[in-house]
Design a protein that fits this description.
Elements: H1 4-30, H2 32-38, H3 47-72, H4 78-102, H5 107-121, H6 125-136, H7 142-149, H8 151-171, H9 175-195, H10 216-223, H11 229-238, H12 247-259, H13 263-289, E1 292-293, E2 296-297, H14 300-331, H15 334-353, H16 360-395, H17 401-432, H18 437-454, H19 456-468, H20 473-479
Antiparallel strand pairs: 1-2
Helix pairs in contact: 1-4, 1-6, 1-8, 1-9, 3-5, 3-17, 4-5, 4-6, 4-9, 7-14, 8-9, 8-14, 12-17, 13-14, 13-16, 13-17, 13-18, 14-16, 15-16, 15-18, 15-19, 16-17, 17-18
């Protein structure tokens, strides 16, 4: 039997591990302006574009790695995968920083390191989510627990900024930022070797952040090899073609998944949400270093502290939304809540982009508000996905695992494409346009606006349902 103290240990280690991954990622964003000023080949005329290509290559490798690691989670111990990811991410981060000391100026060296690092980082999320799902699958507050887990990203950003600032101030070389942060994730891997539990051999299949939660009865029937009532009802949909069993079945399943209610809407929605978020995540430290506030030129160290404030806002926003999700899930108002949150973000961003000439305390307050209002909707978008899949299971008759898995892949895959193109879009704007940061902020706001607009039909449906039905928690919980 899993005790509460054991759950606390597992959750703490998982939180620490994913926190460590984000600490090791942070220097890649923070040192961009330094590289643009002092280090070939990035100090040339196409430096912005080269840095954008590195970010895109890393995110593409991460997206592909997620699928590979998701498969490996079914074949190997999740603890071993996590530890391998920690050490691989640490080593590649250190190698990136060693270019400063080895005087390496080859773009291909940086590109290969970023690709390998991106793939290594993908060993964090899938196995950690599988471990958490195994130990918290029966918790009533599971949505809040999993959403709160996302706050470790922004806590990692805060600590990564502090460490990078300290390393740059002490050693005055950009390479030490990567070395110190790489050692942090390696240390976390060592802690996992000692304290991270091994999953039992009968651990459940991987559930990612958009996979529906099965009932205890369904879990038992699957583990015993029997067919559940859900599988029995959907058996005809699995028997798509007798003469071409695999290829025709996959094609038909993909088309059926596209026809499920809400799939296309939420897929395109997540594309624009991640595009908006990742543009700022990868370029906001560079924007800070381009500013002069109250006659003071923002240095690398100040940029680190400003980014830490933005990350702190993200942590607050994620925890706030996590608590809100626990409440709004009862009433089924995900899309409405996102639209309100996104509208606040656009208003705050407009004020923020024009606040660089204000007092520094006002500017810091705006940085904090942007972190809260941007990452709040982002966390809410991630929290929406399980509800979308669960509605598919209860509203549509096609509930078999393959169809639901295909729907999950469509949503996740489309969102990942947005994440990949976000940093590259910012780099292209900064490299080839004269509007510079103004156009970057317009892209961020416009992407979030489109993401909210796509959910307008869902907002209308939720509003009509809320007005026409019993608003009591129990009545709405029965509808989910």
């Amino acid at each position: 039997m899993v005790t509460r103290s054991y759950q606390v240990q597992v959750y703490s280690l998982a939180f620490l591990t994913y926190f460590g991954f984000y600490v090791s990622r942070e220097p890649y964003s923070l040192v961009k302006m330094t590289l643009l000023k002092t280090w070939a080949p990035f100090n040339g005329h196409d430096g912005w574009l080269l840095l954008g290509i590195l970010d895109t290559a890393s995110l593409a490798a991460y997206a592909m790695g997620i699928f590979v690691v998701g498969y490996l989670c079914e074949k190997f111990d999740c603890k071993h995968l996590v530890v391998f990811g920690c050490f691989a991410a640490g080593v590649t981060t250190i190698l990136y920083g060693m270019a400063n000391f080895w005087n390496i100026h080859s773009f291909w060296y940086f590109l290969i390191i970023r690709i390998v690092n991106g793939f290594s980082e993908s060993f964090g999320y899938p196995p950690l989510i599988k471990i958490l799902d195994y130990y918290f699958c029966h918790e009533v507050a599971r949505d809040f627990i999993m959403t709160a887990f996302g706050s470790c990203k922004f806590l990692g950003i805060v600590v990564g900024c502090v460490i990078s600032s300290f390393a740059m101030t002490t050693f005055e070389t950009w390479g030490t930022c990567f070395i110190v942060c790489g050692l942090v994730i390696i240390l976390v891997g060592m802690i996992d070797i000692v304290f991270m539990p091994n999953l039992p051999p009968d651990a459940l299949p991987l559930l990612d952040e958009t996979t529906p939660i099965l009932s205890n009865k369904e879990r038992g029937e699957q583990s015993s090899g029997g067919k559940s009532e859900v599988e029995t009802m959907e058996q005809p949909l699995s028997n798509i073609s007798d003469q071409d069993p695999e290829e025709a079945n996959n094609k038909e399943t993909f088309l059926e998944a596209l026809k499920l209610p809400g799939i296309i809407e939420y897929s395109v929605h997540l594309f624009f949400v991640k595009l908006s978020v990742y543009v700022l995540y990868y370029w906001i430290p560079t924007w800070f270093e381009s500013l002069t506030i109250q006659g003071v030129k923002i240095t690398y160290v100040l940029s680190c502290w400003f980014t830490a404030v933005w990350g702190l806002g993200g942590c607050i926003g994620t925890l706030t939304i996590g608590a809100a999700v626990f409440v709004t899930k009862v009433y089924g108002l995900f899309s409405t809540a996102f639209s309100i949150s996104a509208s606040l973000f656009i208003l705050v961003l407009y004020w923020y982009s024009d606040s660089s000439t204000s007092l520094i305390l006002i500017f810091l307050l705006m940085v904090l508000c942007v972190g809260i209002t941007q990452n709040g909707p982002y966390s809410l978008a991630s929290a929406c996905m399980p509800a979308v899949i669960n509605r598919i299971q209860t509203v549509d008759t096609a509930r078999n695992d393959k169809l639901v898995g295909m729907a999950t892949g469509i949503i996740d895959g489309t969102g990942s494409i947005g994440a990949i193109f976000g940093p590259l879009s910012g780099a292209i704007i900064l490299q080839y346009t004269t509007w510079g940061w103004s156009l970057v902020f317009l892209l961020v706001a416009l992407s979030m606006f489109i993401a909210a607009s796509i959910l307008s039909r869902q907002v209308c449906m939720e509003t009509m349902k809320c007005c026409s039905e019993d608003p009591s928690p129990q009545a709405n919980q029965d509808d989910l």
